[in-house]
Amino acid sequence: MREREFWQLLDEVFGRSYGRSLAHDQALDKLDNKTVEEALSQGIEPRVVWNVLCDQMDIPDPQRWGSDHNAPPMPAQ
């Protein structure tokens, strides 16, 4: 997942205003309480950030990938 795709999904799943507010304000427990913006700027893979945010917000798998319903591949470890 590219960062551009992350922001598109954020807008689609959460709505532009609420999604951008979450990205700025929501502390992500599993990422040392970083916000989405902080995590991405520190180089954490967008897919990892997306999954952590969706898990924390209780977004089920079928809804977290937007209208395409295709999960992008996990980053190589």
From TrEMBL:
Looking at the Swiss-Prot or TrEMBL record, what is one Pfam family this protein matches? DUF3046
Source organism per entry reads: Alloscardovia theropitheci
Question: What is the protein name for this chain?
Answer: DUF3046 domain-containing protein
